Amino acid sequence: MPGSKPPNERVVSTYCYQCVAGPDLLTVRIQDGVATEINPNFAAAAIHPGGGKACVKAFGLVQKSYSPNRVLYPMKRTNPKKGRHEDPGFVRISWDEALDLVADKLKAARAAGLTDAGGFPRLAASFGGGGTPTAYMGTLPAFLSAWGPVDLSFGSGQGVKCTHSEHLYGELWHRAFTVCPDTPLCDYVLSFGANVEASGGVCGVKRHADARNRGMKRVQIEPHLSVTGACSAEWIAIKPKTDSAFLFAMIHVLLHEHAREKLDLPFLKLRTSSPYLIGPGGFFLRDPASQKPLVIDLKSQRALPFDTPDIDPALEGTFTVDGIEVGADQDTITHKAVAARPAFAHLVAHVKTYTPEWAAAICDVPAADIRRVTNEFLAHACVGETIEIEGMTLPFRPVAIAFGKTVNNGWGGYECCWARTLIPCLVGALDVPGGTLGTTVRLNRPADNRWSSVTPGPDGFMHYPMNPTSKEEWISRPTARSAHRTLVPLVANSAWSQALGPTHLAWMMQKEDFKNLPHAPPPDVWLVYRTNPAISFWDTKAVGETMAKFPFTVCFALTRDETNHVADVLLPDCTDLEGLQLLRIGGTKYIEQFWDHQGFALRDPAVPPQGEAMDFTWIATELARRTGLLEEYNTAINRGGADVKLKGDNYDFSLDVTKVHSVEEIWDAACRAASAEITNGAETQGLDWFRANGFRVKPFSRLMWYLYPKLVEQGLRFEQPYQERLLRVGKELERRLHEHGITWWDKQLAEYEALPHWRDLNGLWEDALAKHFKVEIADYPFWLVTSRSMQYSWGNNVAGQLIKEVADNVMGHGSVVMNESAAEKLGIADGDQVEVRSPLNSTKGKVMLREGIRPDTLLIIGQFDHWVTPYAKDFNAPSMNALVPMLLDLTDATGSSADLVKVKITRLAGAT
Amino acid sequence: MTRWAMVADLERCVGCQTCTAACRHANATSPAVQWRKVLDVEAGSFPNVKRTFVPVGCQHCADPPCMHVCPTTATRQRADGIVTIDYDICIGCAYCDVACPYQARFKITKEDFAYDAGAMQNEIEREDPARLGVAQKCTFCSDRIDFGIEHGLPPGSDPRATPACVNSCIADALHFGDVEDPNSNVSKLLRAHKSFQMHAELGTAPGFHYLYDKAAAAPAPDAPPAVSDAQAGRIRTRGVEPWHQKHWDWKASGNFLCGGAGTGLFAFTSIAGLSGSAIMVPGLAALALIACGLTLLMFKIGRPLRFIYVLRQPQRSWMSREAWVAGLLFPLALFALWTGHPMVLLAAALVALLFLFCQGMILEQSKGIPAWRNPRVIALIMATGFAEGCGLFLLLAALLPDLGAVARPMALALVVLAATRAWTWRRYFNSLVSDSVPTRTLEIFTACRGWFFAGGLVLPVVLVAVGLVLPAADAALFALAGLSVFATGWAIKFILITRAAFNQGFALPHTPIRGAGLPGPAVKPGWTLP
To answer: Do A851 and B32 touch (CB under 8 A)?
Structure first.
C-alpha cells in the first residue's frame, strides 16, 4: 500500500494502454521483486480526467506477466505444413537463431525488391487494438519507417469492429476520427448504441457518471439493453441497423415541425454550406470568375460568392441566377438565368417524406418516441446561448448524438454519420461547448493536434487529403492489398490509412483475384503483434485458412494462439509490466480522451521479464542491425520514431545513427527530448526523472477541445448539409474504375450522394445473404449483434483468469443472449445449449434469457471461439465472428461492414 | 464516536467490476473469492426493463448477526464499527456464513490458484495459509484505515487510508467515511441523496448505504414494496436471487439429525429409567448418536484441531452454548446411566433437552437463511427431536425385551408427539407462506407436505392403533411406527438444513435514477409474496 512500504517493497509508475480509451496511469506494487497489485496513480489525479484511475483490464496485467501459459522463449516451427489441424511442432531456439531467421527472410525480401510485381509490399504487418500496440512496441515503428513500404492492410477487425464510417466521414466533416459528446458540459445525449460505459474507458465512465449526477439525460437507442443502456435514463429498443431512419425522422421533425427560428440560423448561414446554391446538375452553382459557390444575399437580393462580407445569405427560396457548375474532372456547365435553391432548401425537401410515422414502421419504435426525443433534443439545445471558455465566448449547445459501432460502419454508416453531423449543425451544436465533438485525427495531418490539421480547402471548407480521383493522379495500382487508395478516396494516405481501407479485401484477394486489379500474392514476411485475426476478424475460418498459406510469419507472442499457430517464428516480447517506453499522453485523443493537460508518461519496467522475453525496443534494434538498416532506424528514431523528436528548436538529443544503442539509451534520449519539448527547452531531465515521477505534462487549452473557434479563426465552414465534394469524387472514381474495367465496386459508388437517401439496410443484408448462400432468408429469423465488453475488449485479455472471473459477474458474457418470450416460443430455456447458425457457419453455447433484448435479436458479447489459446480454449463460449461473411455486397463505399448477420437458433437435443 | 461506512451511488455505478478486481489484488484473495463484487440486476418485461448495478460485500452491520453467532470470538466488532475476523481463532464452523444475510463470507479449505499449472509468483508471494479453513470477508481494508489514523491521513479522502475498492472505482460510485461525522464526505452524500440499506428489515443496521435519488427530488409515486417475479415482470440476474447455501452440508446436518434424535432418545430413556427399565443400552445408544453428530461436525469445520475454541463465547453464541451443554451432558448422562439415580437421570434428561433447544436456537439465529431464522423452527426442531427419540426408543424396545414394559405408553406418547410435530410443522410452514420466503424453499417444503403428513403422522398413528388392538404384533407395529416417525423427522431436518436452505439473496427497495427521471421499482427476485 502506498505510504506504508516495508523495505522489500516498492511502487513503480506505469501506464495501461490496452484499449483505445487509455492510457490509464497506474502504479504497480512490487513485493520482494514480484508485482502483486495494480493501483491507481493518484499522483496523476489532478491531471488525468479519470482521476488517475485504471480500468478493470489493468488489473489483469499481473496475471499476464506471470501466467504459466506465456511463450517464454523464441520458438521456431518444425512442421512445414500449416493449418488448424497441423501441429506446428514449435521448438525452443536462441534469440540469435530466431533473429537471424527473421533477418534472413527480411533481407531476402528486400533483395527481391521492396514491392512485388504487382506493386504490393513484400513485408506485411498486422497490429490490433485500434493502434494501441504502438504503446508497447517500443521503436518498432522506427524500424518499419526505416524499412520502407509495409502492407498494413491485413485487417484484424478493422472496418467491422471499429466505428469505421465515423473515422472517415468524421475526419472529413469535423476532424473527428472518433466522436463523442462534450460530456463535461452536455445535458442531453441521444446514444445510438454507443456503449461508452463499456468502451469509453476511465475518462468516459467518470465523466458520464458526473454528468448523470448533475442531471444529464441520456437516451440509449439500441436493440439490447447494454451496460450503457442500463446507466441511461431511457432505453429505446430499436430494430438493428435501422438507426438511419430514426435519424432522418429527427431531421424531418426539426425541419418540418418546428419554426425555423428554433434552429441556429446564424450557424447554418455562416458555419455551414446551407446557403450555397445548387445547380441543376447537382453541383454548387458557382461564380464564373472566382469559381466560388454562390449564395443569395437577402440584403441585396443578389447572388454573390459565399465569402462576400456583410451579407445575409438565404437558406430557402428559389432564385433565378447565372453561374457555373463544376462537376467530375472539372467538367463545367454554364447556366444562364437558371432556377436554383440553396442547399438548405434541398435538404428540407429531401427529408419531407421521412416522417416519424414512416420511421416507426422501419425502426419498430413508436413515432411518438421519435418525435418526443427530437423535441427534447431541441429543447435542451439552448440555441442562442453562449459560454465563456478561457476568456473566449463560444456557443453553448449542451446536446449531442453518439454512435456505437454497428450504427457506424458498413452500409448505412454514411447516412447515419451524415445525420449525426447535420443535426448538431441545425442547432449549432457541432464542435462547440456542450455539443458533439471530434476528439482526434488519424487521417489528417499532423495527427497530434486537431487544430493544426485545420487548413483552408475548397469552397470555404477544411482541406481534406482525399486520395486522388483525377485521371492523371488516380492510383490504379494499389499500394497495399486492401487497394485502399484505389477504391476509397476518403481513407487518405496517412500511416493509419491502410488499416482503414477495406481490410477484408486484403484477405479476400488471397483467395480470388479482383478483375483488373493486379494479382496480390501473399507477403514474403508477415509480422503480427497484439492481434489474433484468426479469431477477431469476420469469417474467421476463411481468414485462418488464408494465413496458413503465408510463407513466413513472425508472431510476437504472449501465449500460443490461433494466429501464431501458423507462425514460423514466435518471439516473446516483454509484457506491459516488463517493457520500457515513453508515451505521449493527454491533449485530445480517442473517444472521451480530451484532457486539460498534455505530455508524456513512462512505462517503467515493474518487474524483470519472465523467461527470455525481451524488450521490444531491443528486438527492433536487433532487427535493424541484422537487416543492415541501423542507420536508417536510428535516423527514424531521431525524427520521432520514439514518440518524440529527439531534436527540436532548442534541444538536440539525437542518437549517433551509426551505433547500436541500448534500450535505456534510446528512451533516456526520448525522455530528455520530451522534457525539453514540454518546458520549451528549459529542462532536459531524462529517464531517471521519469522513473521517479512517472509522467510530465503541461496545460492543454480547453479551447482546443472544440473545432469551432479554429474554423471561425480561419473563416471556414462545416461541410454540411450538401456533399458536393463527395458527389464529385464519387463520379470521378466511377469514371476511373470503369476506365480500368472495374465494375465490381459499382454498388459502393452509389453511396456518393450529395444528400443521402434512406436505404433498406435490413433488406440489403437479407438479399446479400440469400443471394450468396442461396438460402431462404426467412429460415434465419434473428438478427445477431454483438457488444463490447469492458473486461475483454482489446488488450489480449482472454487468457486471463481474473478477467474472466470478473467478466462473469456481468450478464451475457459467454452466452447467447435471447429474449425470454422469443425463447419460449422455440421451447428454449435459460441455460440450454444452443446452436446459432448463419448462412455461413455456426457457433454453439449456452443461452441466457433476458428481457433486455428485442425478440428478433440475439446478442453474443465479445470474441471467443478459441481453439489454441490456453485457458480461453476451454470457455466453450459462443462467438459471432465465424458467422459473419466477408462479402462485397455487404461492403460500403468506405470499405467497411458491420457486425451483423441473420441467424437461426436451435436448442441442442439432450443438452442443457 | 467514529462509524466507518461505505456509500455506493447507484446512479454512478456501471458494473465494471474494477472494484472487484482491485479487492482481489489488495487482499490477495483466491480465485472466485470476491469480498467485493457488483451485482447485475435486470428487472421488468420487454421493453420496460431496468438494469442496475449494485456493489455488495460485508455490510459491517452495527448489529452483526455473524458476530453474535460466532462461537469462538473470532468475529468481533471494533469500536469504529468494522467487523473483523481473527484467523487464528476461527475454527471454520461457517456459522457466520449462514448467519450473514449478505452472503459476504467465504471459506476455502485448500489453496486455489488462477491456473491449474500451480501458483504463479504473485500468488506465492501473497499466499496466506492462515486464511485456509476459516471464515474470510471484506475488512473495509482496515489496515489502511489504521495506517491512516496512525499517520494523520483521513480515511475516505486520502487514498493511503481508504479501502482499495473505493480507490479503484472509476465511476467514483463508492465512497468511504465516518457517518458519525456530519462533515464527512459520506454524511454529506447521505444528506444530499435518498438512500437505503439492504435488508434493513432484518435489523442489522448495515454500514453500507445505497444512494438512489437526489434528496430534493419529489418522492416517486407510490414506491411499491419489495416485489416478486410476478410483480416486477421477469427478473434476470447474476447471483441476486436466493441460492442454495453450501456452507452447511450433510455433515453439518448430521449434528441436527443425530443430536436431535439422540437427545430425544435420551429423554425417553430417562423416563423409562424412572419406571425401572434397564436403560444402559438405549442410553448409551442415545449418547453415541449425539457424539456421532458432533463428530460429523468435526469433519465439517475448517480447523478441527481448534475445535475447543468453540467454547469461547457462551455469552452470545448458541453453538458455543450447545458445546458447553454437550460437555455437561456426556458426563452427567453417563453418571446417570451408571447410577440409575432418578434425580440424576432427570437432570441428564433436562440437559439433553437443553441441547436440543440449543439446536433450535442455532438455526433460529441464522439470519442469513430465511427458512431457519423463522422463530417457529425452534418448536419444530424440539418437537421432531422428541418424536424421533420416542420413535427410536420404540424401535429399540422391539429389540430389547427389557424395554417392552413401557412400549405401550411410549407408543401413545409417540402418537401425541407425532401430532405435536405435525402441528409445529404446520405452524412453521404456514408462517413461511404468510411471511415471505425464497420461492425455492417454499417449493421444496410444499413437495414435502404430503409424505411428511402421511409418514410422519398418519402411518404411525394407524400402526400404533393397530398395535394397540393386536397385542401379538404390538412390538413390531410400534417399532414400525417409531421408525416412520424417526425417518420422516430425519428426512425433513435433512431437507431443512440442506436442500431447502436458500439464503437471503439480495434485494433493492429502490432502483436508481440515471441522470433523469424517477427511481425504479423495488426488486427482490426469487421470493414469494407475503
So the answer is: no
Whether residue B237 has pLDDT greater than 90: no
CB–CB of B14 and A231 under 8 A? Answer: yes
Q: Is B216 on the interface with A (CB under 8 A)?
A: no
Tell me the CATH number for domain A761-907.
2.40.40.20
**Which parts of A643-735 are beta strand (E)?**
647-648, 651-652, 695-699
B448: number of Cβ within 10 Å:
19
Determine the residue among B13, B38, B236, B241 to mutate to test chain A binding: the one whose Cβ has the most chain A Cβ atoms within 10 Å. Answer: B236
Question: How far is Cα A589 from Cα A95, in angstroms, rounded to an integer?
Answer: 37
Interface contact flag, A212 B37, Cβ < 8 Å: no
Touching B: A residues 696-735, CB under 8 Å: none
* Tens-digit pLDDT profile for residues A845-896: 999 999 999 999 999 998 888 999 999 999 999 999 999 999 999 999 999 9
**Can you give the pTM of this predicted structure?**
0.95
What is the DSSP code string of A91-105?
EE--HHHHHHHHHHH
Please indicate whether residue B225 or residue B28 has the higher confidence score (pLDDT): B28
pLDDT grade for B311, boundaries at 50, 70 and 90: very high
* Contact predicate A161/A899, CB 8 Å: yes
Q: Is A661 helix (H, G, I), strand (E, B) or coil?
A: coil
If you average pLDDT over residues B282-299, what whole number do you get? 94
Other C-beta atoms closer than 10 Å to the C-beta of B48 total 12
Q: So what's the pLDDT on residue B245? A: 92
> Grid coordinates in use for A433?
461547448
Closest chain A residue to the Cα of B32, Cα to Cα: A805
Q: For A780-803, what is the mean pLDDT?
A: 92
Distance CA B508, CA B520 (A): 10
Q: Could you tell me which chain B residue has the CA closest to the CA of A3?
A: B160
Is pLDDT at B228 greater than 80 in this prediction? no
Instruction: Mutation target for B interface from A199, A205, A560, A789: give the one with most B CBs within 10 A.
Output: A205
State how far residue A697 is from chain B, nearest Cα, in angstroms: 22
Q: What is the C-alpha to C-alpha distance for residues A637 and A657, in angstroms, rounded to an integer? A: 9
Q: Provide the CB-side half-sphere exposure for A760 (13 A, CA).
A: 8
Cell numbers placing B161? 487510508
Cα dihedral value B205, B206, B211, B217, nearest 10: 0
Per cent of chain B over pLDDT 90 is 85
Give the pLDDT confidence of A84-97 residue by residue, as tens digits: 999 999 999 999 99
Please report the domains of chain B, with CATH numbers, ordered by start residue. 8-38+57-210 (3.30.70.20), 250-426 (1.20.1630.10)
Nearest to A515 by CA among A746, A732, A328: A746
B 381-440 → A contacts, CB under 8 A: none
pLDDT band of residue A5 (cuts 50, 70, 90) is: low
Q: Would you identify the CATH topology of the domain A75-136+147-160+467-563?
A: Rossmann fold (3.40.50)
Beta bridge partners of A127: A529
Q: Which residues contact B222 (CB under 8 A, 6 or more apart)?
A: none
Who among A1, A225, A236 is closest to B51 (CB)? A225
What is the rounded distance in angstroms from the CA atom of residue A28 to the CA atom of residue A31? 10
Domain map of chain A by residue range?
Answer: 75-136+147-160+467-563, 761-907
Which pLDDT does position B238 carry in this prediction?
63
pLDDT of res. A189: 98
User: Hey, is A514 helix, strand or coil?
Assistant: coil
**Do the Cβ atoms of A205 and B14 come within 8 Å?**
yes
Residues 304-343 of B with CB under 8 A from A: none
Looking at residue B235, what is its pLDDT?
62
Q: Dihedral, CA atoms, B151, B156, B161, B167, nearest 10 degrees?
A: -150
The per-residue pLDDT for range A155-204, each reduced to its tens digit, is 888 878 889 999 999 999 999 999 999 999 999 999 999 999 999 999 99
